Amino acid sequence: MPNTQKQTISAREAARRMGCSDDIIRAGLISKQFPFGQALRLESGRYRYFIPLEAFERWMYDPSGKSQKL
Predict the structure, then answer these.
(1) Which domain of life is it from (predicted)?
(2) Mind listing the pLDDT tens digit for each residue in 24-46?
(3) 37, 55 in Cβ contact below 8 A?
(4) Does residue 44 lie within any of the structural domains?
(5) Tally of domains within the chain
């Protein structure tokens, strides 16, 4: 049976959960300040943002990453 749970979230949803603007999330992903997702630049010059739900939730729980095992 396929997993129907959403695996990624939008920049807008991440911003809502963090209490900041979409632009903060997008800028943070482009500059690699946020480790929970990626910004992919398309040939058109626009960006596509990928935020895995699990990585985002893990980072929200522990932004320092100290509780994660290597």
Answers:
(1) Bacteria
(2) 999 999 999 999 999 999 999 99
(3) yes
(4) yes
(5) 1
Determine, yes or no, domain membership for 19. Answer: yes
Q: Within 13 Å, how many C-alpha atoms sit on residue 4's CB side?
A: 1
Neighbours of 5 (CB within 10 A): 6
Residue showing tokens 């910004």:
39
Tokens of 6: 């959403």
Each residue of 2-23: pLDDT tens digit?
555 679 999 999 999 999 999 9
Residue 1 falls inside a structural domain: no
In angstroms, the CA 16 to CA 12 distance is: 6
Alpha carbon distances (Å) from 7 to 13, 14, 27, 49, 56: 13, 13, 22, 13, 11
What is d(CA 13, CA 24) in angstroms, rounded to the nearest whole number? 12
Residue 33 forms part of a structural domain: yes
